[in-house]
Amino acid sequence: MGEAEIRCRSCHQRFKSPVFQELIECPNCLQKWKLKWFDESTATILAPESWVEFQAKMKEVKK
Amino acid sequence: MNPIAFIDLSKQEIVVKPIPERIRHLFLGGRGINMYLLYNHLREGLDPLSPENPLLFGAGLLTGTHGIATARFNISAKSPESGNLGDSNSGGFFGPELRFAGYDHLFIKGRSPSPVYLWISDGKIEFREASHLQSYNLPQTLDAIRTELGDQDIQVAAIGPAGRRLVVFANVMCTIGDAAGRTGMGTVMGAKNLWAIAVRGRRPIEIASPEKLIKVVEKHYHQITQTKGYKATALYGTLMRLAISRTQGQEPALNFQYNMLESGGEEFDPDVFVRKYEYGKMACFNCPVHTKHLHRVSSGDHKGLTGAGPEYGGAGYFGSSCGTGDWVTIMECWDLCNQYGLDILTTAGYIAWVMELYQRELIDESVTGMPLHWGDHEAMTTLIHQMGRREGFGGLLSDGWQKANMRFFGEKAKEYEHYIPTIKGMTVDQDTRGTKAMAIGAATATRGGGCHLRSRFTMEEMDLPPEATKKIIGRPVTSDPDSYEGKAYPAIWMEKLCAVGDALGVCRFVTKWLSPGLLGFNELAEAVSAVTGYDLTPEQLMEVGERIYNLERLFLIREGLGRKDDRVPERFHEPWQYGYQRGSCIEREKFETLLDEYYREHGWDEEGIPTRETLERLGLSEEPSHLI
C-alpha cells in the first residue's frame, strides 16, 4: 500500500499518511486535517476537521 | 509570422506592417512587443482617456499553437485606473483566433465619432456600427455580435456598460469566464468608442518543426499532469488558494485589517463550493488544467443564479476582504461584475474600503445612503450596480478611489488614504506580510496593485530546502518565508518568468509560478525552438524577460514614479494577529535594505533607475533614449 507525505498547514512539520485515509492527525501539533487523494501517492490538505475549532486554535498560536 | 495592424479609429484607416525580426528577438510577442510599442508611441504625461493613448492587443509568440496552455494575449495602454502602466492578460480563445485571423498585434489609436466594433476575418478588417449594443450587458454583447455575424465560433473581446460609461476600472471580457481585468483597459476602449473586437480566421500558424513540437508537447504534458499542483488546480481551480490562505493565516480579512475571517465558518471551503455549486469546468485553448468553474444555485432565494467562476479573486476579496463566507453572495457579486464589465479585484477592494470607513464611522448613511455592514449581501450587490451604472453612492467610486477619497475627506484626504491598501494607485491583490520575496515583488510590480501576476515567488512558502531552490533558480533560497535574506534574486527570477510567459502567451498555471515541477525557462526554450526555429538558450530567454521588465520600469520612471512608489501598503507594517505567522509584518528598515538589494540585483541605481550599463547590456540604449 502507498502513502503520501503531508505538510501540516498549522505547524509546518512533514508526516506520512496511509493511502486514502480521509482524516489525519498531525503527530507534532495534533491538528486534524481532511485530505483529498488524487491517486495512491498524492494527497493534499483540504481543510481542518472543523474550521471553527481550527480558527479558535489559530488565535492561541504563539510564534 | 503575422503582422501588426495599425488602426486609426478617428480616420477609420488601417495600415499593416510586418514585425521586424530584430524586435521579435528582443521582445518575442504578447506583452513584450506591446511594451515596446507602448513605450515608443506614448507621450509622457498623456491623459489615459485621450484618443492618443495607444491601445495594444498582442498575442503571444506561441499563442494558438500546439504548445500547452498557449491561449494568452495582453491588452496594454496607459492606465486610467492607476495613471501609470496599463497591462492586462486574458486566456480563452480570443488570442489564438486573432492569430488565425491574420494578426499578432493590433495598435489602436484615435476615437471613433460614434460607437463601433472591429470585425477581423482572415486578414480583412471592417469598422462596424455598434450603437445598437447600448442596452446590452457584457454576455449579451458577446452573443449579439456572434449572432449578427452569423458564426458562433467567432471570438469577441468586448466591454460592457461599465466600459461604455468610462468607469475607470472597467475590464474587457472574451467569454463569461475570461476577463482581461485590472488597470482599466475596458475604460480605454470605451474612451475610444470601440465597444468590441470580433475575430475569426482560418489561417494556419507556421510551425518551424512540427515533429519536434509534437515531442515537446508530449513531454510537457506528462511533466505537467504528474505534479500535485496540477492535480489540485484541475479539481479546485484557483479556489485551492482559499484553503491555503485560510489555514496559513493569510486572509485579507475585513480590508486587510486581520489575517483571519472569523465569520467564515464551515461553508467557506473550496470543497463545499465544488460539491454544492459547481456543475462543470471550462478550459482555455489547448489547456489540460481547466481551472474555471461553472456555477449554479439550485435552491433557496437565489435559485437560478448561474455563471462562470468564481476564482480566488472572488472568494478572497468579495469573501474574506468584504467579510463574508457566503458562496451565494460571492457568486452574485462575481456575476454582476462580469455583466457590467467591472474588474473583480478593484470592485471588491473598493467595497471593502468603504465598509471599513463605515465601520470606523468615518462615513455614515448621510453619505452612503444605506448601511454598509461587513458581508451584507444587499449592500454589496447594490454597490456593484451603482458602480456599473455610475449612480448613487457607488457611482462616487466609479472615477477611482483618489477622487472618492477627496469627496469624502476634502483637504484632509491624505490623512485617510491608508484605509485603502494600494500600491502605485491600484488596490492590492495579495497580503505579503509573511513572504518577503513576494513582498518585494509586489512592492515593485510594474503594473501596481502588488500584482501577483508580475512576480510571486510561490516556492517561498513551500518549505523547499535551499539546495532545491538552487537547482531550480540558480541560487539557494532560505526556506523561511519570513526571512529577508537573499529574497531579491528569487523575486527578480520570477519577474522574468512571468514576463516571458506573457510574451509567449503561456498561462501561469503550467509554469513554475504555480509549482516547482511545472514548466520553466528550459521547457519554454524548447517550445520556442520548435515553433519558431529561434534557438534561444534558457539564459537568453531570461534576458528577454529582464528586458521587458526594464522597459516597463523605464515607462514608470518617465511618468514620474521611482523609489518612493516601491512600497507596500501602510497596513502591511502592522503585524498579523493570528496563526503560525502571527507577528509577521514588513519591517521598514529591513524592507529598505531589501529594496537596495533588489535594485543592485537588477543593475539599477539607488533610486531604482536602470543604469546605462544595464540598458546597453539589454539592448535598450537606443529606443528608450530619454535616460541616455
Overall description:
The complex is a heterodimer of chains A (63) and B (628). Chain A contains one helix and five strands; from the N terminus they run E-E-E-E-E-H. Chain A has one domain. In chain A, the strands form two sheets. A three-stranded antiparallel β-sheet of chain A has the order 3-4-5. In chain A, strand 1 and strand 2 form a beta hairpin. Chain A is 16% helix and 44% strand. The termini of chain A are far apart. With 63 residues, chain A is an alpha+beta fold. Helix content of chain B is 41%, strand content 13%. In chain B, the strands form five sheets. Chain B has a six-stranded mixed β-sheet, sandwiched between helices. By secondary structure, chain B is of the alpha+beta class. In chain B, a hairpin with a 2-residue loop joins strand 16 and strand 17. Chain B contains 26 helices and 17 strands. The relative contact order of chain B is 0.12. Chain B has three domains: 197 residues, 4-Layer Sandwich (Aldehyde Ferredoxin Oxidoreductase,  A, domain 1); 157 residues, Aldehyde Ferredoxin Oxidoreductase Protein, subunit A, domain 2; 165 residues, Orthogonal Bundle (Aldehyde Ferredoxin Oxidoreductase Protein, subunit A, domain 3).
What's the CATH C level of the largest domain in chain B? Alpha Beta
Domain module count of chain A: 1
Q: How many domains in all of chain B?
A: 3
State the helix count of chain B.
26
The greatest interface here is:
A-B, 26 and 27 residues
The neighbouring-strand order within the major sheet of chain A is: 3-4-5
Helix content of chain A: 10-25%
* Overall body shape of chain B: globular
Q: Provide a count of the helices of chain A.
A: 1
CATH superfamily of the largest domain in chain B: Aldehyde ferredoxin oxidoreductase, N-terminal domain
Q: Which oligomeric state applies?
A: heterodimer
Mean pLDDT of chain A: 91
Number of strands of chain A: 5
The N- and C-terminal alpha carbons of chain A lie at a distance of: 37 Å
Q: Label the structural class of chain A.
A: alpha+beta
Helix-and-strand structural type of chain B = alpha+beta
